[in-house]
UniProtKB/TrEMBL annotation:
This is Methylglyoxal synthase. InterPro entries: Methylgl_synth, Methylglyoxal_synth_AS, MGS-like_dom, MGS-like_dom_sf. GO terms for cellular component: cytosol. SUPFAM superfamilies: Methylglyoxal synthase-like. The gene is mgsA.
Amino acid sequence: MNIALIAHDRKKKEIVDFSIAYKGVLSTHTLFATGTTGNEIAKATGLPITRYLSGPLGGDQQLGAQVAAGNMDLVLFFRDPLQAQPHEPDITALIRLCDVHNVPIATNMGTAEVLISGLKNGAFSFRKVVKSPESND
Ligand SMILES: O=C(CO)COP(=O)(O)O
């Protein structure tokens, strides 16, 4: 599965700790991230991660494009609900695209825990069925 990892600044420690805790599971999947989040997770875990631009510079949009193209199976996005982000429209767009394409997205660590459990027990096999190729239909 292709997994996107994203965290706002005050959630970076949470996603790093989460990635360390679930390194075993994450290492069996293909990982993508926004710039700074990816750097911090890679430094802490040694996991290979394809890194896009930093969120405020377009990283959320780049990941959104992958969601729209059917290339992302799971998005773990540790959002900061207590701080306004300059790129809020990009964040909203990424979440919207996940809803459009039925891509599971966790916006906090609690949901991420549940989805990671799902990854381990085969709950993501539905992705093979719903994954649609790029299409204008
Ligand atoms: O801003 C972000 C998500 O909206 C995350 O970007 P960084 O991982 O580059 O900090």
